[in-house]
Structure formats: C-alpha cells, structure tokens
Amino acid sequence: xxxxxxxxxxxxxxxxxxxxxxxxxxxxxxxxxxxxxxxxxxxxxxxxxxxxxxxxxxxxxxxxxxxxxxxxxxxxxxxxxxxxxxxxxxxxxxxxxxxxxxxxxxxxxxxxxxxxxxxxxxxxxxxxxxxxxxxxxxxxxxxxxxxxxxxxxxxxxxxxxxxxxxxxxxxxxxxxxxxxxxxxxxxxxxxxxxxxxxxxxxxxxxxxxxxxxxxxxxxxxxxxxxxxxxxxxxxxxxxxxxxxxxxxxxxxxxxxxxxxxxxxxxxxxxxxxxxxxxxxxxxxxxxxxxxxxxxxxxxxxxxxxxxxxxxxxxxxxxxxxxxxxxxxxxxxxxxxxxxxxxxxxxxxxxxxxxxxxxxxxxxxxxxxxxxxxxxxxxxxxxxxxxxxxxxxxxxxxxxxxxxxxxxxxxxxxxxxxxxxxxxxxxxxxxxxxxxxxxxxxxxxxxxxxxxxxxxxxxxxxxxxxxxxxxxxxxxxxxxxxxxxxxxxxxxxxxxxxxxxxxxxxxxxxxxxxxxxxxx
Length: 519
Ligand code: AMP
Ligand code: MG
Known about the structure:
Elements: H1 9-13, E1 16-17, E2 32-34, E3 44-48, H2 50-56, H3 60-64, H4 66-72, E4 84-86, E5 89-92, E6 95-99, E7 105-112, E8 118-124, H5 141-156, E9 163-176, E10 185-196, H6 202-210, H7 214-228, H8 236-261, E11 263-264, E12 286-287, H9 312-327, H10 334-360, H11 370-382, H12 387-394, H13 414-419, H14 421-438, H15 442-450, H16 460-471, H17 476-485
Parallel strand pairs: 1-2
Antiparallel strand pairs: 2-4, 3-9, 5-6, 7-8, 8-10, 9-10, 11-12
The structure holds adenosine monophosphate (AMP) and magnesium ion.
Magnesium ion (MG) binds next to loops.
C-alpha cells in the first residue's frame, strides 16, 4: 500500500499516559493513553468509501491490497501510526458522568494529504482500552454498518460529519444483549475506520476542569485552537473567545441541518459533541418517518425523550452551556461566554429559517408565514405523513392546477388522510397563494426545493435490511445503498424503491423503529 504521511500532533504535543497498561482505570494528568489494537481472527473488507480513500491519497489498488483489511481490522499498523485512546468525560442524559474516554475507539494517527489537509484515522471496535470500563472494546456488525453508511450519507447530504473509510468484518463473534433484557447472543464483529480532522469532543475539556486540572485544560484548549482553528487571530485570550463563539456557531448550523433532513442523533451527550461541529458517534440514531417532534429511536430514552427530534436544538444549547462551564477557568472575558449562547440561538434561527424557506420553496420567511408553516407541521404530525416524501413531493405541486395528489405517497394511513383531507385542502390553498406572491418560475422553485429536500435518506428499515443481508454474507444491498446515498438529491428513478416510505412490517420491528445503545 502507498505509504501515508503521518504527523501525530495530538500525542506528540500533549501529555499522555504511556504505561501500556490496559486495565480499566482513572487516568489523571494525561489527555490520552497509549494502546494497541487487539488482533482479530479473520479480517475481511466489506465495503469502503472511495471518496474517503481519495481524501487520504489512496486509489483502488491500495484498497485491494491484502494488507488493507489487516490494517483496518487492527492486525497490523502502517509505518507512522501511533495508536491512542483519548481521555474525556461527559454529561450523559443531563448528569455528570465523570471519566468516559475512548472505550472502543482508537486513533491510529493523523495523516496529512497532498493538499495539506489533516485527517485522523480512528478504529471503532478494535479492542479494550483503559477506558473500556466493564465492556469489551468491540463493535457488532449491525452498529458498524449503521455508522459506516450514515457517516457517508450525511456527508453527501451536505451535513458536517465525521467520515468512514472502511468497514471490516473481524471473523470474531461479539456477545451482546441487544435490548438489555437478558437475551444475550453472539453477533458478528466488525470494525469501522472513521476519519475526521479531529475527534476532540466537548467532554475532553470538561474532564480536566471537573478535576481542577486547569493546566491540562489550558494545554488542550490552545492545542485545539492551534491545530484545528488556525484561522483565528489575535492574542491567546482573543483567540480563545473567538474559538468558543465559532464552536457555538458551527453547532447551531449542524443541528439546523439535522432538523432539515429529519435526523435524530439519539444520544446527544456532551461526550458525543464534536469540537468541530461535526456529527459524531452514530449509535441509536434514526430518521423521522411520519413527522413527530417527540420521536426518538433510542429505547434508553423512550421515557424521558430528552434526545427526541424536537428537542435537539435545545439540547445543543444545553451542551454548549456545559462547554462554557468547562472553559470558564481559561476565558477571562465572561461576556464572550454569554455571547456564545446568543450566537447559538441567532445562528440556529437564521440558518433553520433559510432552510425552511427553501424546503417550502419560498424566497424568504417572514413572521406572516408562521401560521401556515406551523399549520403544515401540525398536519404532518396529526395525519402521520412521511417528512422526507412530503417535502420532496411538495415540489411537484402545480400552481396552475393544485391538488394533493403528489403528496399521497407520503401518507402512512388512508383513514388519517381522509380525516384530515379538508384541512389539507385549505392548507394547500394558503400555500399556493403564498407561492404566487414570490413569482418564482416553477422550474427554479422546484430546483431550489430539491436541493434541500433529499429524495433519499438512510431510512431505518433500509439500514436494517442491509444489515440482515450483510450478516448472511451478502453485501449487495450495502453497496447499492451507499451508491444511492452518494446522490441523495438526484431523482435516480431506477432506485425509487429506496425512496419508499417505511413498510408496515417495519413499524415496530427492532432495528427499524427502536434501537438501543448496545453496539
Ligand atoms: P457511547 O454511548 O457509544 O457514546 O459510549 C459511551 C462510553 O462508553 C464511551 O466512553 C464509549 O467508548 C464506551 N463504550 C461503549 N461501548 C463500549 C464497548 N463495547 N466497549 C468499551 N467501551 C464502550
Ligand atoms: Mg460516544
């Protein structure tokens, strides 16, 4: 394989724990621990992302090399790799959880490509680390397929996210109790190699502060600014202030995108919030099918619904407040920290407002639009309408001859469609009047809408079908889904089957409508 250029700044410039001692423990005075992947029985490459390979400077020849599966299955290291697990803490479900750390993620190193871009490579499921607590450091095929596909799908939807290079089956079994109900079973193991400029999370900053280790916090803050935010200018304090504001801004933009496409992360704990504003840690995430702001895919959150779709913008704000608390000791100007909260709120409403306007095909939102827009969401909920199909098909409404016909495929239940027929009809009249005010040519309106309303998202049941097939040794659907999701805004009529609403059998099926954190 073509060698990669590694420049491992995180481990070179920041204090680490190099005991090489794997047993679970509290790690103090260090931001990372030296680790080694634990070898697996029989690694096989199941799928890779050609775009991510290209980012690293690799071609199909490198991917096909027999060493590829060995390296990305954790059996071999490439020259220059220095594996480590990061030490971080986090707030989980609203409470401080103490030290968490990379329990089954291991960074292999930071590559710098021909364009000077830094890409860190990280294996997920390569064995235990000092942060594995009572767990095994492994990952199962189902969760790895989900992480691989969704990372790439999100990227192609234009949403900031970590990427995925490869999905390797390990040939080993992994014991999991999927619903924590005493029914543990052996499942096939797998490893994803994820790729991002940095995997630093809010929780990396929270942990040193919680321990009063302000020196360590300061080192990490200035390192992150220097490596990941080189565009910031001014003295140390000025940079730190701008940095916090930029994190608030990016987080708002990321969450606005989630809301645009109906993505529900499912576990927005502060250890799952990227300092770069990337979507990170794909676990029990899901996509809205019938529009329901209270929906969460995560069974662990079924009661509290803390991380349901509609809560995500508020949770982003809450998480930033935890980051603000963690950074207080190193940012002297308190007003900057408060300004972050306002910037988050303003950025979110401006960004989401623009997205909403584009989704409905109007030039710009005004306060007068609130009633009919709220009316649409209320009806989408009451009448059980598929969010993705509704918005995509909305572009097909013909202003000369408006009917609800194009929207019919988005309804899950005929009885509810009939019950709300009249309300929808009067909504359509209002909507068409509003469109007429803008005088956008029909083709332009449709193009504008189709650029923000995807035809294809990684529907929960599709991911599950690809998983079931892959578990039986058939990668066909996995490959086909990746291919379709590379162009989510294109009509791709030959692939219409992947745009269909959730079939009835999937309504209450495990993996399709409910997911656990078990992975
Ligand atoms: P998550 O909910 O996946 O973000 O994980 C929360 C914490 O648990 C992180 O520190 C993970 O690294 C750790 N963790 C989750 N699953 C495992 C596992 N199978 N083995 C070791 N650590 C794990
Ligand atoms: Mg996590």
